[in-house]
Amino acid sequence: MARTLAVVFLVMAGCRTAGFQDGVFAKPGVRYALTPPSEGWKPVAVEGNDLAWFSTSSDHSLAVDSTCSQGEDAPLEVLTNHLLMGFTERQRLSQEKEPLDGRESLHSLYTAKMDGVPVELELVVLKKDGCVYDFVYVSPPGRAAEKHAAFDALVRGFKTESTP
Fold first, then answer.
1. pTM of the predicted model, to two decimals?
2. Which candidate among 134, 146, 152, 156 keeps its CA 20 to 30 Å from the CA of 96?
3. pLDDT, tens digit, for every residue of 123-133?
4. Mean pLDDT score of the chain, rounded to an integer?
5. Tens digit of pLDDT for each residue in 98-110?
6. CA 142, CA 144: separation in Å to the nearest integer?
7. 3-state secondary structure of 158
8. Greatest CA span in the chain, whole angstroms?
9. What is the pLDDT of residues 67-125, one digit of tens each?
C-alpha cells in the first residue's frame, strides 16, 4: 500500500527541487514561511509543488504549492476542483471557508480514487496578493487522523512574506 500511495502522490505531480531554507520558501515573485512537518516526514521533490513530504512510517503525504499569474481570479471552489483533476469517484465530505493569513481560504475533505486506489484528501486553497496557495494532504482511507496534526500545523503556520 505504501508504494501504491507514493505512486498516487507522485502521479499528481513529478520531481524537481524547491528553494526552502530556514522555514522560508522562495521562488521568483513568491516568498512564504511555514513550519515543516517534524520528525517522521521525508522531504521529496515533486514537480508542480513547491514543497512536499512523505511520511517515513506510513502512507501519508503533504504538499504545498503556489501559483502567481496576473488576471486569473477564479473562485476558491473552482481552484479546489483543479486539485481534484485525475481523481475519480470523488465524494466531498465537507467544505467550509476559514481565515488563513488574513484572507479567506476554502478547506475541503474528499474521498476519491487515483488509478483505482482509494485515498482521502484534505485540501486548503488560499488566494492572496495575486497568488494561489494550495495545501494537500493525502492519506489512506480511514487513516487521515493519524497524521492530520502535521497538516494542520503546516497550514496554520503559513504566512506570506514580501518578495525582495
1. 0.86
2. 146
3. 999 999 889 99
4. 87
5. 999 999 999 999 9
6. 6
7. coil
8. 44
9. 988 656 899 999 999 999 999 999 999 999 999 999 999 999 999 999 999 999 999 99
State the residue for C-alpha cell 503525504: 61
Can you give the CATH number for the domain in which 137 is found?
3.40.1000.10
In 3-state terms the chain splits into helix, strand, coil percentages (rounded to 5) of 20, 45, 35
Could you give the number of structural domains in the chain?
Answer: 1
Residue type, position 53, single letter: W
Q: Find the domain containing 156 and state its range.
A: 2-160
Q: In what order do the strands lie in the sheet with 30-33?
A: 20-21, 24-27, 30-33, 159-160
Contacts of 15 (CB under 8 A, 6+ apart): 44, 45, 46, 47
Phi-psi region of 140 (alpha: psi -120 to 50; beta: other; left: phi over 0): beta
